[in-house]
Every structure is written in C-alpha cells, then in structure tokens.
Amino acid sequence: MTEIGHFIDGARVAGTSGRHADVFNPATGQVTARVALASKDELQRAVDGARAAQPKWAATNPQRRARVFMKFVALLNENMQELAELLSSEHGKTVEDSKGDIVRGMEVAEFVCGIPHLIKSEFTEGAGPGIDMYSIRQPVGIGAGITPFNFPAMIPMWMFAPAVACGNAFILKPSERDPSVPMRLAELMMEAGLPAGILQVVNGDKEAVDGILQHPEIGAVSFVGSTPIAAYVYAEAAKHGKRAQTFGGAKNHMIIMPDADLDMAADALIGAGYGSAGERCMAISVAVPVGEQTADALIQKLIPKVEALKIGPYTDSAADYGPVVTKASKDKILALVEKGVAEGAELVVDGRGFKMQGYEDGFFVGSCLFDRVTPEMDIYRQEIFGPVLSVVRAKDYEEALSLPTRHEYGNGVAIYTRDGDAARDFASRVPIGMIGINVPIPTPLAYHSFGGWKRSAFGDLNQHGPDSIKFWTRTKTVTSRWPSGIKAGAEFSMPVMR
Ligand code: NAD
Questions:
Q1: The ligand 1 atom nearest the CA atom of 151
Q2: pLDDT, tens digit, 9 for 90 and up, residues 5-27
Q3: Helix/strand/coil (H/E/C) assignment for every residue in 410-430
Q4: Are residues 65 and 196 in the same domain?
Q5: Quick one: which of 214, 220, 476, 485 could link to 140 by a disulfide (CB 3.0–4.6 Å)?
Q6: How far apart are CA 127 and CA 479, in angstroms?
Q7: Which residues form the Aldehyde dehydrogenase domain (predicted)?
Q8: Residues known to be catalytic
C-alpha cells in the first residue's frame, strides 16, 4: 500500500498525526494508497519552512523566477504520460482528459513566464514639483490554496503558479481524494530549480483547512470546491483578517435558439454534459431549447448520442468517460436521478442499471437524460456533478434567459444561435461570469481571468490572468520628492496639486 505524506522543505515527509484517508482507484473500487491528514503541528512546520525561504525568493529577480517556470513547463511536457496516468488512476477520468487537466494548468505556468512584465509597476514622473509617484506590487508573503478533486493538476497550478511567480511562498492543501499529482507537481517544481520551502504540500482535511484559515502568518487564501465550503472558507478567512477568493459549485445552462445548428448544439451538449462523467465545474448540466419544435428535434438528436456513449476505465483509450470519484458520489448522483423521476421529470435515457463488466466494484454511473425538467425540481436546483443532463423547455427567449438569471449559481452559460443580436443581448444581460457563444465550455485561457458570479464565487479577484497577479500581491504606493529650491517651513493645509 502506498503511503502519501506531505511535501515540506523540498522533500516528501511522512505524516505524523496518525490520521489517514483512503485513496481509491475509482475504476476498480480498490484502495490504492493512504494519504496522511495533517495536524496543526505539521501545518506549522510547513509555515516555518515557508517563512524562512520566502524573503530570499521574493528578492530573486523576476527573470530568474520566470526561468523556474520555463523549466517546469518543459518537465511537465516530458512527464505528461506518467502524470496523466497517475491522475486518472485516482480521479477516474480518461488519460486524454487528464492530459487536458495538466495542459490547462501548464498554460498558467506558461502565462507566469511573463512575470517580469506582469509585475512591472506604474510610475508618474512630475506628479508635483520635484515629486514622482510610483506603485509597486509586493508579494503577500505566505499564500495558501485549497483545491477540489476534479482538477488535481490544473487547479493547484491556477494557484501556485502566479502566487510563487509573484515571490510568495505557497502552501497547497490538495483534495484528499487524489493527492498524488499535486505531490509530483511540487517535486517537478524543485527539479525546475525552485528553492526548498517555497512550495509546500500539506495533505489533509478540515483540520488542515481550519489551520490555514486561522494561521496568523498566512496572508491570502484561494479555494475551489463546493459552495457550502467556499462560503465557509471565505467567511473564516475574512474573520481572521485574510484576503480570500473562493470558488464554488455550478449549474451551467446552454440555451438553444430555434435558429441554432442543432447537430452542432447536440454534439456540444454531449461533450460538455458527459465529458469527465459530468464532474467539471463548467460542465453543461441544463439544456434549454427555445420552443417546442426545437425541444422535440433536440431530444431526438440527443437520445441516440447519449445511448451510444462509451463508459470505461481510464485504461480503455476508447472510453468517452470513466467512473465518478467515489462510491459516495455515485450514490448521491443515483439518489438525485431517483428524485428526478419521483418529481415527474421524464427520464428518456435511463442509466440507472449500468454495470461495467469486469469492474463491478467500480464507481461507474450510466448516462442519464431527463426531459421536461422544471425549475422547482431538485435535479434542476442542485448541482448533480455526474453524467446527467436535464432538458428544461422554454417557450421563448425571455423565459430561457430567466432560467440562468434566477439560478443561485452563476459560473458559466452558453447560447447556441446564428443570430448575432440575440447572442449579444444574451451576453450583456445574463448575470453569469463566463459566457459561451456557440462554445459550450467557455473556460477562459490562462491570460484572461476565470471566475463565476453569484454563489459560484466569493471575493472580487478571479483565478489566473491579470486578476491573479493582483490577488497574490499587495500594492505599495511611494511618493518621493527630491527638492531643489523648495522653500523651507511646515505646511498645515491638505496637500493638493493645482
Ligand atoms: P469539496 O468542497 O468537497 O472539497 C474541496 C476542498 O475543501 C478539499 O480540499 C477538501 O479537503 C476541503 N474540504 C471539504 N470539506 C471541508 C470542510 N468541512 N471544511 C474545510 N474544508 C473542507 O469539493 P470537491 O467535491 O472536492 O469538488 C467538487 C466541487 O468543486 C463541485 O461543487 C464543483 O462545482 C466545484 N468546483 C468549482 C470550480 C470553480 O472554479 N467554480 C472548479 C472546480 C470545481
């Protein structure tokens, strides 16, 4: 049995708390490793190492910091297959999908190779007589990140790449369900030349998270996970005087207008609804065809495509998607499907009886498609996070627009149409953070920022892109005067420039 400890001061160390969690291969249902759950003392050790290493790293010039990321990107490429297989073996997603997880994180590492330019300051010469004014961005000091199971490579990199590039030390608390890839990422950062102590990985559960939130030396906390925990982390971090950005759950709609290319829309729904077994925060889980004719035609196109989806273990390169992450997730998804049936939605593709031959103990869930879902139903209101797509029929555009508008979540949304006016109106009026126009999963690239609205995100600065540089640094503004010929004497009135 593999034992996974922590990564502190440049090396793997065993856990000492005596508490562990099981790590499963979701395809077989077997326990493959035990991950240590850190105590507050172990967290303190990580903070001590981070505090000792950070000033020297912050004083390292930004080109040198960038070069670590250049090397890191090269190492990610060299180790891509090994990392992807390791990721799939704990998460369950297909190996190709795991490569996507790694590449989307790697793009953030590529983005921060531009840190010398990104962190440049603003300067005003001659703000007054003999006066210059400039604003500089300095690292927060020690930052921390708490990440979910569904992107164990991308989301840690969303956080540690800009935090570390900005000159911070960083403490990563990955999901306890798939901790192996985050540990490898820390090793690769060391191999790329990062000094020991700058990237610490502390595995754990609520105890480690609470330790981070209460720790007086950790200045900023980034969180991605479910909404109840995101709300908790945001409030607790604020209570302890920390800067926080926390990202939560989602219910992403796709509006299909009567003029849309229905084949394109149906294919987009299949990929975005069922890819990664629906375990993506940007998955489409609600399709909203506008008008009965559109709805009937769409359903007819979707049914055979959903029925044809190939489910399999990550070792099957032909699989469209794999198992969900845990037995508890599988049970929760199936319970919600039962609820949907009981609430009167029409289960037009029923995956409830699905069994994966040869993998009977795996956490596989068959593909489900619901028609005639209404906004009052639990399957509409809750995030299912599984291979279940709900169709909510809207009579017209305004009714379709009102659905994502009124939903508690506001992560992503898409509209499929050939009508530029409708698309433009939609993008302007819908209160959602990320909008796709004929694009099902509008996840911004690394040089833009990622974040939802409403109860999908708390805090005002988003992940990666320009926001991340602001989040992981503090602004200091310097006003300087080098006077020549300025008269002596105190000034008592408010200084103004006229
Ligand atoms: P989760 O909330 O269960 O766990 C996230 C992190 O919080 C983990 O590191 C976990 O150890 C920690 N945690 C869990 N319970 C805790 C508690 N009581 N107190 C303190 N910490 C706790 O989420 P998950 O199941 O790992 O991930 C899936 C969720 O993440 C979904 O809701 C999904 O939509 C969301 N997600 C959101 C985004 C986004 O950008 N908005 C991206 C990916 C995933």
A1: 43
A2: 999 999 999 999 999 999 999 99
A3: ECEEEEECCCHHHHHHHHHHC
A4: yes
A5: 220
A6: 9
A7: 16-478
A8: 281
